[in-house]
Design goal:
The complex is a heterodimer of chains A (about 190) and B (about 120). Chain A contains seven helices and six strands. Chain A has about 190 residues and is an alpha+beta fold. With about 120 residues, chain B is mainly alpha-helical. The chains are: A alpha+beta (about 190), B mainly alpha (about 120). At the A-B interface, strand 1, helix 3, helix 4, strand 2 and strand 3 of A face helix 3 of B.
Chain lengths: ~190, ~120
């Protein structure tokens, strides 16, 4: 079969796929793959699973009224590509396998990820890690892993949202006050 | 029984003999016919004229598209309103999820940074 007998779009398909692959990888920059937490959710006394992709974030900013609160939320969310939250609370200590935490942390050893805060308190068995994914000077992702004996929370914010922008939401929509130094929040 | 029976034949002839109507019978019949005709002419609906039929059709032809347009416009408006209501509801739901996600993120950050700044504080 001669190549010219293929439709034009099919002949272009390999080129499109070649171009699309790095684009897809770039689109997911700053996003981590969560382990399968289905088992944890079943064991937890309280669990929160939130996956807000770009379309959900865009939808959230639609039909908002005017006002300072809405403006700050719109500004905070406008640069985001996703917010993914997994939070579990348990009735007993160490009810979750630490391998789940390790699986998340392993992904944060890759290029582009920088450890911002790492607190390990062996007495209280409390581990908190905050990582930033940076492309040049731009922050494109944030991961918070907070592991306590009865609580595990993993937050992944994808996109260009600085901690300063997050701090602007203090006191609004139930967001508590943050003890953030301003220099920390600058992307 | 045959026609040769003389008694039967006599009875038949007597029954079929011509009898003159009573006096004024024809006049009464004609008067009754006239009365019936006039009664029918007043009770029956008048057949509409061709002009009236044409007028009715023109009226109907003028109003049908208008009525159809009104029905379509109302249906479209109702559909749009329903669609918008659904979108507003979905946006509200998404917004609440964003608030919740930001609240959890902020609380976790808060706890993490509090411990980072002062490790003696409870997380």
């Amino acid at each position: 079969m001669r190549a010219s007998s293929f439709p034009y779009c099919i002949r272009l398909l390999p080129i499109v796929l070649l171009l699309a692959t790095p684009a897809a990888a770039w689109a997911d920059a700053g996003r981590i793959q969560f382990p399968n937490f289905d088992g944890l959710a079943a064991k937890a006394t309280n669990s929160v699973t939130l996956s807000l992709d770009p379309s959900m974030l865009k939808l959230a900013t639609q039909y908002m009224g005017d006002g300072a609160n809405n403006a700050s939320l719109q500004a905070a969310v406008s640069g985001l590509k996703g917010i993914y939250v997994r939070s579990f609370q348990f009735g007993a200590d160490h009810a979750y396998p630490h391998s789940d935490v390790d699986e998340v942390l392993r992904q944060l050893e890759g290029p582009g990820w920088n450890k911002l805060v790492s607190v390990h308190n062996s007495q209280r068995h409390q581990d908190v890690d905050i990582y930033l994914y940076q492309q040049g000077k731009r922050v494109e992702g944030l991961v918070i892993v907070a592991a306590q004996p009865r609580e595990l929370t993993v937050v992944n914010i994808v996109g260009s949202m600085s901690l300063a922008q997050l701090s602007q939401l203090e006191g609004k929509f139930g967001v508590p006050s943050l003890p953030l130094p301003q220099s920390l929040g600058t992307p | 029984m045959t026609l040769r029976d003389p008694e039967f034949e006599r009875q038949l002839r007597r029954a079929l003999r011509p009898v003159d109507p009573p006096q004024g019978f024809a006049d009464r019949v004609m008067a009754a016919i006239a009365r019936g005709a006039s009664a029918r002419s007043t009770d029956a609906p008048a057949r509409p004229s061709d002009a009236a039929i044409r007028h009715a059709w023109r009226w109907r032809a003028a109003w049908l598209p208008t009525a159809a347009s009104v029905v379509l416009a109302v249906s479209a408006a109702a559909g749009w309103a329903w669609h918008r209501q659904m979108q507003v509801h979905q946006a509200q739901t998404a917004r609440e999820q964003v608030y919740r996600a930001l609240r959890i993120s902020s609380e976790t950050l808060n706890a993490a940074l509090a411990v980072a700044v002062d490790p003696t504080q409870p997380g």
